[in-house]
Design brief:
The protein has 5 helices and 12 strands. With 186 residues, it is an alpha+beta fold. The strands form 3 sheets. Strands 3, 4, 5, 6, 7, 9, 10 and 11 form an 8-stranded mixed sheet that branches. The protein has a two-stranded antiparallel ribbon with strand order 1-2. It has a two-stranded antiparallel ribbon with strand order 8-12. Strand 1 and strand 2 form a beta hairpin.
Length: 186
């Protein structure tokens, strides 16, 4: 049967459009669902797709790694309004449409820096975090509090059991952070 000139078959445009719409809906909902695989499997069964995870990973690379599983991306420096995988500053990055705050460190501010020393260290920390994120797959370990007061997801980011934040601390580009008031860098 044709609808507005489109075939309504199981492999036709309408099925693909339905899949894209379901993917968009899941993209908005899944970052807030604890066991996203169960939700994905239920939706996949409902719309007759056998590998929804593969489709979602293609649409939004990097976002679909559950806690404790390796994620990766190709990170650039964030620019105003950018929503791609990018590094905001030394302790914050965006991935798959979500903003992640690296929970175990504090780095110098870059938006705006309070003095020239903070500006230089902040730029160095931002660039080094970009290099570390691009060096290969990493694991995001969620914290007891899922999000901070700005809505950023809180996670310790590690590779091979070593915190990327701890690497910045060793290099003098960050301080350990366990909550509370942060000290200035000037």
């Amino acid at each position: 049967m044709a609808r507005n000139g489109l075939r309504a078959s199981s492999g036709g445009f309408l099925r693909e459009a339905r899949l894209v719409l379901m993917g968009l809906a899941l993209g908005l909902a899944l970052p807030h669902v604890a066991d996203w695989r169960q939700v994905g499997d239920a939706v996949a069964h409902e719309i007759g797709v056998t590998d929804l995870e593969r489709v979602l990973r293609r649409l939004w690379p990097g976002q679909w790694a559950p806690p404790g599983e390796a994620a990766s991306g190709r990170f650039v420096r964030c620019r105003r309004g950018a929503r791609a995988d990018c590094v905001v500053d030394g302790d914050t990055f965006r991935m798959g449409g979500d903003t992640i705050r690296i929970a175990d460190i504090d780095t110098p501010e870059t938006h705006p820096p309070r003095c020239p020393v903070e500006a230089r260290k902040g730029e160095a920390a931002t660039e080094r975090m970009r290099e570390l994120l691009n060096a290969g797959p990493f694991v995001m370990e969620p914290q007891s509090r899922a999000r901070d007061k700005y809505g950023r997801r809180l996670a310790v980011v590690s590779r091979d059991g070593v915190s990327l934040g701890a690497q910045l601390v060793e290099e003098g580009l960050a301080r350990p952070y366990a909550g509370g008031k942060r000290r200035g860098w000037c």
